[in-house]
C-alpha cells in the first residue's frame, strides 16, 4: 500500500514495529527509506537490512547494535535531538541487525537501496561537522553526519537540521529532481520532524511543483510527522515562534556519483545575496559536536 499524501502524520504506521515506516514501495519510488523505532527498557529489535544500507541514529537514548557477522557497536546516543550531536552506526546490505536499548530510547533507521556492500562502521559524534547555514531569520544548524563527502555510503545521504523558533530553513526553496551534471542531482528525499516544547509545538513545510502535476503540499507538521519529496521545490520549513524545529533529511538517488547538488527557485534565489548583510542568529549553534571521540570498546572476542 502506498501513501495517499506526501504528508505522513505520526501514528500512521499501524501494524508494524515502527512509529514511522517509509519504504521505497510505500513511497512509490526507488531508493529512500526511513523508520523510527521506540524501545522500552532492555528492549531489542532485529531486522534484515535486505537490499538497503542503513544508519542507526539515536534520537533519544543509547543502544547496542550487533550485526550477524559478530560486529558490535555501542552508541552513546543523547538525551534528545535538541540536546547534542549523536554517534551512529552504519549497517551494510544483506545482513541482519539487532538494536538493544538497556535504558530504552527512540532511534531512526535511515536507509537507501544500494548495490555495493560496504563494511559496517561506527560514526563518532566528534566526527560530525556542524555547519551554521544562512543568517538572520534564515539561520539554521546542520549536522552533516552522513553528508556526501563526509561519511562514505553507497547511495544514502542524511543530515540533521535545527531551526530556532521563528526562523525559516530550507530557504530559498530548492530542488534536486533532475540529473544535470555539475548542476543538479536527482534525489528522493524524506523530511522527518520533531518540534521542541510541549505537544502544542508545530511547524509548516511547503513543497511546490517544479513540473506539471508535481508534488504540491503545505503541511502543518508536528513531532513524528514526515513529508515525502519525490520532486519539486521544497521549502521553506517554518518553525513557529517559541518552538525550535528539528528535521532529519534522508536522500538517495540513481546517480553514479553520490552528490547533493541543488537548484534554487529562480523567484527566491536572491535571498542568499542578503545573508552577508546580517549576523547569524545568536541562538546558534544550539550545541556543538564534542571535541574528543568517546572511546569505542571492542566487543567481546574482537581484537583491539
Automatic annotation (TrEMBL):
Q: What is its EC number?
A: 5.3.1.30
Q: Into which EC class is this enzyme placed? A: isomerase
Q: Which GO terms describe its biological process?
A: inositol catabolic process
Q: Which GO terms describe its molecular function?
A: 5-deoxy-D-glucuronate isomerase activity; glucuronate isomerase activity
Q: Where is the composition biased (Pro residues)?
A: 285-296
Q: Does the keyword Chaperone apply?
A: no
* Region described as Disordered: 281-304
Q: Is Membrane among the key words of this record?
A: no
**Protein keywords:** Isomerase
UniProt name for this protein:
5-deoxy-glucuronate isomerase
User: What species is this protein from?
Assistant: Streptomyces netropsis (Streptoverticillium netropsis)
Amino acid at each position: 500500500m502506498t501513501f495517499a499524501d506526501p504528508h505522513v502524520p505520526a501514528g500512521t504506521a499501524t501494524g508494524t514495529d515502527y512509529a514511522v515506516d517509509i519504504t521505497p514501495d510505500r513511497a512509490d519510488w526507488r531508493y529512500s527509506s526511513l523508520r523510527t523505532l521506540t524501545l522500552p527498557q532492555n528492549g531489542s529489535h532485529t531486522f534484515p537490512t535486505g537490499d538497503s544500507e542503513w544508519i542507526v541514529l539515536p534520537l533519544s537514548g543509547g543502544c547496542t547494535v550487533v550485526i550477524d557477522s559478530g560486529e558490535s557497536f555501542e552508541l552513546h546516543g543523547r538525551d534528545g535531538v535538541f540536546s547534542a550531536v549523536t554517534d551512529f552506526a552504519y549497517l551494510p546490505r544483506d545482513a541482519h541487525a539487532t538494536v538493544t536499548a538497556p535504558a530504552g530510547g527512540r532511534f531512526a533507521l535511515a536507509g537507501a537501496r544500494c548495490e555495493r556492500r560496504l563494511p559496517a562502521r561506527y560514526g563518532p559524534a566528534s566526527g560530525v561537522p556542524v555547519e551554521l547555514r544562512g543568517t538572520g531569520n534564515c539561520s539554521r544548524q546542520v549536522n552533516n553526519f552522513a553528508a556526501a563527502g563526509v561519511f562514505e555510503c553507497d547511495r544514502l545521504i542524511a543530515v540533521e537540521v535545527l531551526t530556532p523558533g521563528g526562523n525559516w530553513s530550507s530557504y530559498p526553496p530548492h530542488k534536486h529532481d533532475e540529473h544535470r551534471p555539475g548542476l543538479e542531482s536527482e534525489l528522493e528525499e524524506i523530511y522527518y520532524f520533531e518540534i521542541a516544547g510541549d505537544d502544542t509545538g508545530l511547524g509548516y513545510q511547503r513543497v511546490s511543483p517544479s513540473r506539471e502535476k508535481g508534488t504540491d503540499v503545505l503541511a502543518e507538521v508536528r513531532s513524528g510527522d514526515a513529508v515525502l519529496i519525490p520532486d519539486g521545490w521544497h521549502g521553506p520549513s517554518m518553525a513557529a515562534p517559541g518552538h525550535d524545529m528539528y528535521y532529519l533529511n534522508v536522500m538517495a538517488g540513481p546517480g553514479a556519483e553520490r552528490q547533493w547538488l541543488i537548484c534554487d527557485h529562480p523567484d527566491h534565489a536572491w535571498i542568499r545575496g542578503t545573508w552577508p548583510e546580517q549576523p547569524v542568529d545568536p541562538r546558534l549553534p544550539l550545541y556543538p559536536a564534542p571535541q574528543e571521540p568517546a572511546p569505542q570498546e571492542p566487543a567481546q572476542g574482537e581484537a583491539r
